[in-house]
Structure formats: structure tokens, C-alpha cells
Amino acid sequence: MKHLQLTEDLLERASIYAVSAMSEGERKDYARHLEEDDCTLCRTEVLELQAAMHALAFDIPQSSPSPAVKMRLMAQAEVSASMRGLQYRTPSRGFEWLAWLISAAATAALVGVLFLNSNLRNRVESLSARLAELETQLVGQRTTLAALTSPRFRVVNLAGLGTVPQAGARIFWNETERRWLCYVSELPPVSNDKTYQLWFVPQNGAAVSANVFNTNPDGSATFEIPVPADIGALKATAVTTEPAGGLPQPSGSFVLFGAL
Amino acid sequence: MSVEDRTDQENIELIRRMALKDAQALEAFYDRYNRLVFSLVLRIIRVREDAEDVVVDVFWQTWQQAARYDSSRGRPVAWLLTIARTRAIDGMRSSNRKASHASTSDQLEDHHLPAGQRGNPDPGILADTRQAVRDALTRLPDQQRIPLEMAYFDGMTHTEIAESLNQPLGTMKDRIRAGMSHLRKQLKAYI
Prior knowledge:
The structure holds two protein chains of two kinds.
Chain A: H1 8-18, H2 24-36, H3 40-53, H4 55-58, H5 67-87, H6 96-149, E1 153-160, E2 168-174, E3 179-185, E4 194-202, E5 208-213, E6 221-226, E7 234-243, E8 254-259
Antiparallel strand pairs in A: 1-2, 1-8, 2-3, 3-6, 4-5, 4-7, 7-8
Helix pairs in contact in A: 1-3, 5-6
Chain B: H1 3-19, H2 23-45, H3 48-65, H4 76-94, H5 127-139, H6 142-154, H7 158-165, H8 169-187
Helix pairs in contact in B: 1-2, 2-3, 2-4, 3-4, 5-8, 6-8, 7-8
């Protein structure tokens, strides 16, 4: 039934329909009224209310999609446009196979584009992970650079002993903040039942455990440790091989040593 | 001819060219409104990757249905936003990601700010339109704005909204109607 005048009830129904808040049954009935009854009055009301409702979208904090979104869309559109051009060409008799061939090629191109999209997303994810890894490395390198260039740092070299004469280590000692930044090189990793243990060797008293560690397959290790405030003056530092977990006092063979 | 009318004419011309499968027209249309559409879809879907997939679908649908666009049935931006909202609500329902209003997502922090104090707008939207929208929303009482937002962004029915806000259904219908009437009155010249 076409309406000739908007009543309060009709205004309410138009509002609720416009903002899509009707239940499914109500929505179907009202949509049928708009279309089949061709009720211009209600339809005009709904269109104006729908336009006003979209004001809510204009007030959302704005964000941009990634550039890949546009690339995906435009790749699809280009293929679609090229396929449409092909559909309008009428092949002469005897050349239908050519049309099929071109159509198949266009379909293959579309499949290729979709495949490319998937690869593109994977590539973006892979690059994001790589970027995070590089950022971590960059932070580490900046710390090293700061240690190398800061006058507050004292550098201590440790030489390889016994069976590992090629091994070495360098400690950047921040005396102000009482921290050691340690870089070990060419020290072969030990098996799981053993560990390397770094020691503070005070001028007076017994050695104090500084850290337990193992090296990477390439013989390197990097770590940062605090220097205890109550340890007093140090005369040396050393690395020994100990049982896994380390010991309170050194018991194994010395592999690195440096005087302070 | 007002600035809004001129923008409409430009958009209608882009849609006409899209109907002829002019990819440059689609690109221009995308450049104008991708932020507006993405922001709306993200607000509804709440997951960035899913929202980007929906944005492709939305503009792809405008490309496919451009020939069926009828300017007598609404302005181009309203047509585009109707497609975007419908797609986003469908996507939200199918992925069962209907989030609660207490979402902790960073992307939604601004949702709880009072109207008129939100983030930077899309530069593709005319400045006076933005201002008119903000003024209208600022003057909209919360008891009318909140039900509208629950329907618009979360796809909730009037019954669900009434239950959620613990209000009688009749009251909720009145508030939706009053809120819509306010927005239409304030924004008729702009949207």
C-alpha cells in the first residue's frame, strides 16, 4: 500500500530501517513495501535518513590502508577491463579457437594476479619480520658503538688459554653504571652437560661468579652483566669450563683470562 | 551549484566511466575515498588485515555495479558507504568477530571520546561537511548517539540494543528516530 502521508509510526519505521536496526522479518516486510508497493514517500524518507546516518562514518578517526590494497584492486580491475574488451570482439568463423585461447590466457592471467596477491602478502609479512630482526640488531650495534666511543668505558681484553689459544673476549666496562658488556669470539661451544663461567677476581678474597654462558656455533657470545657494588677492587677476570649450571668457585680449566 | 553538488557531479562521472571499465576512474574514486571507507570498515571489523580485504571487495563491487548506480537513489558517497558498511557487517558476522563495546583495541580508543573530539579526518571530505558533521554529532545527546552507533557500527537490531542498554524497546525506537531526525535536519545540505 502506498502511503500519502508520513505518520509517526512510519517515520519511526523508516528511521529504524535506515540504520539497519530492524529484525530480519521486519526488514524483509519493509523492503517489500518499498519495492513492491513502490511507496515513494517512504523510500524518499529512507534515502534521506540513510545519507544522514553515514555522518557517523565521517567522524571516525581516519586511517589509511596499506599500498598493497590499491595494487590488488587495480590488478583485478586491469584484468577485468582487458577481459571485457575481449568479450566484445566477435571472432570470424574458423577463428573461435583463437577467442578461446585468448580467453584462457586472460583467465590464467587473473589466476596469476590472485596468486601474486597472496605472494605479495606473504612477502610483506616476511619483510616485517626481517625489519623487526634488523631493528633488534641495530639497537645492539648502537649499544656497541656507544661503548666503543664513550670515554666512560674501559676496555678489557681476555686472551685464549690452553686448548683454545685462538679464542678471545673484550669487555667494555662502564664504571659509572657498574656494567660489563662482554663480547666473546672463537670460543667453541661446550656440550649440554657443561658451561662456560665468567669470574670476577677481586684483589682480596675469592673469585665471584659473574655469569654462566655458552657460545653460538660460530664461537661468539654477547651479554651484559652488572658489577656488584660490594665486590671491591678487581685485579682480573677469567672464564673457566664448569659443569652445567656453574659452581660457586672455579674448578675447571681456564679458557680466557684478562688482567684489570 | 554548491561545492557538494560539484563533488557529486565529479563522482557520478567517475562512476559512469567505471561502468565503461575505465580503470583510471576506479583509481581516482579509490584515491578520493579509500581512507573514509577503510576507517569505517576497520571500525566495524576491528582487524586491520580483514579490513583491507573488505576494502578491496567494496571498491571491486563499485566497479562491478557501477552501471547499476542510480543517482536518484542517493549520492555517490552514500552509495559507497552503504556498500562498505554492508560488506563490513557481513564480514564481522561471518568471522564472528563481533567485539564488545569494552574492546581494548588501540584502534578503537577514540570511539569513547565525545563526538567532535576525534582524530584527523580524510582530506577527501570537504571541510565544511566535516565541520557540519562534528557540530551535529556534538549536539546529539549520548542517549541518542549511542544506540545509533550500536546499530551502525555493530549491526545490532533495536531489540538487541534495548536489551544491551537495559531500556524498554519503545524507548529505544524513540531515541533512534529522534537521533536520525536530528542528523538529517542538521546535515541535509551536506550529505
